[in-house]
Design a protein that fits this description.
Largest sheet: 3 strands, antiparallel
Number of strands: 8
Strand order of the largest sheet: 3-2-5
Shape: rod-shaped
Strand content: 15-25%
Distance between the termini: 175 Å
Structural class: alpha+beta
Helix content: 55-70%
Length: 269
């Protein structure tokens, strides 16, 4: 009788251990456990740590709550100004409702991926090329809103959407390069014209000052001769203006016939 009792106790203990092993589950810190009892959702999601389920009756499904980085394949489309482009992006999302992510959608990752591709093509068709190249922040916000709206019912929250790259045809790249070159040339011409205008104003002021003092013009001419002669040894042909000759002639006459100040003084007396 005693051996039979010992055998029964061993069998009961073994069965208890098997039951305990089947019922004991561990949910990690970044996971949530969703229990289905006979195919139906049983209560709220299990928190991280040790938990127990009913073997052969309950099924525990673990859902990762970490942020998922999902690359969106490059989508080709035509912008609003009729330019063919290829745009790729990346989506950051996480599960906020583990039960909804398992019950409401078959595969939430695949669903988010398809929704991101569809939204990206829609954004391409609604935007101009300049917006895709320079106004990406606004497009990222619009793309995030388009993906997040249906994802709320899937228990998924879109954390961030970023457009990574915009590929243009080679012909469009060459056209944009020519446009940028023409714009730089236009700015250079405007700067040169403004410099000429400022220089002409200063020259006009200098000419007005020199017209009041003819000797200043002669001094400026001599300074120019000295500056040119200092650069290289060469023969310099310098045309003398008539004013300079008249100035020298008057100076010579003044030296040959000095005025008689004494005679003038006697006449005054």
């Amino acid at each position: 009788m005693l051996p039979e009792l010992v055998t029964a106790a061993v069998l009961a203990g073994s069965a208890g251990l098997v039951y305990l092993a089947a019922a004991a589950k561990v949910v990690k810190q970044y996971e949530r456990g969703v229990v289905f009892r006979l195919g139906r959702l049983a209560g709220a999601a299990r928190e991280p740590g040790f938990t127990m389920i009913v073997p052969f009756v309950d099924r525990l499904s673990k859902v990762n709550m970490q942020i998922v980085t999902l690359p969106v394949p490059a989508q080709e489309g035509i912008t609003r100004d009729n330019v063919t482009v290829r745009v790729d992006a990346v989506v950051y999302f996480k599960v906020v409702d583990a039960a909804a992510a398992l019950v409401n959608v078959e595969d939430y990752k695949f669903a988010v991926s398809q929704m991101a591709q569809t939204s990206l093509r829609s954004i391409i068709g609604k935007s101009d090329l300049d917006d895709l190249l320079s106004n990406r922040e606004k497009l990222n916000q619009g793309l995030e809103l388009m993906i997040d709206s249906p994802a709320i019912g899937w228990g998924v929250q879109i954390d961030r959407v970023e457009i990574k790259d915009v590929s243009l045809p080679d012909t469009m790249k060459r056209s944009m390069a020519r446009q940028a070159e023409a714009d730089r040339e236009r700015r250079a011409r405007i700067i040169n014209a403004d410099a000429e205008l400022q220089a002409s104003k200063k020259l006009a002021e200098a000419a007005e000052q020199m017209s009041e003092q003819p000797a200043a013009l002669q001094l400026r001419l001599l300074q120019t001769v000295v500056a040119v002669a200092a650069e290289k040894n060469s023969t310099l042909v310098l045309p003398f203006p008539v004013e300079l000759l008249r100035f020298l002639e008057r100076a010579q006459e003044h030296q040959e016939h000095p005025p008689d100040h004494r005679h003038d003084h006697e006449i005054e007396k």
